[in-house]
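Chapter summary example.
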Amino acid sequence: MSRDNKFLAIAVALSATLLVSSAAAKNGVEKYEFDIHVPAFYIACLGEHVEINVSVTGKYHEFDTSSGKYHLIDNWQYTWEFSGLLTERTWIGRGATPLVVNIGPGEASQWGESMVARPLTGDGPKFRYFYRFKATVNANGELVVLIDDLDGVDPGDYYQCIGKQ
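The structure predicted for these 165 residues follows.
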């Protein structure tokens, strides 16, 4: 995935938490829902291009501590509907994306995605997707940790088929 595409995905994800309608609980937890359409891309293990429609429900909580640190805890639960453009097979995937951000001084951000998709129509295999990202910047602004599973990888190659092929 190119850096531009990765930054666009991050920007969409973060802005979605700000733009969707939400409902606050008494404990400060905000709830929200939104949908995303992902244009077609190739998944090698399926041998075809797929489009994805994603329905997300999320909860987040943000707060500042007395020491001046900002914290954001966000968790998406989502359902992905994959549509094969060549075979017209469909898959339903369910997954989660926990996100944690801590800022000041320095910053630590991390999230991961985990999803398993099962065939809804057709005889396609099950497949999975797993991704993790972590970045830590010290108080001097120096990057000290970077884990980015998709850095330089075509996003379609990151899906792995499991079960019958």
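To summarize the output: Confidence is low (pLDDT under 50) at residues 1-22.
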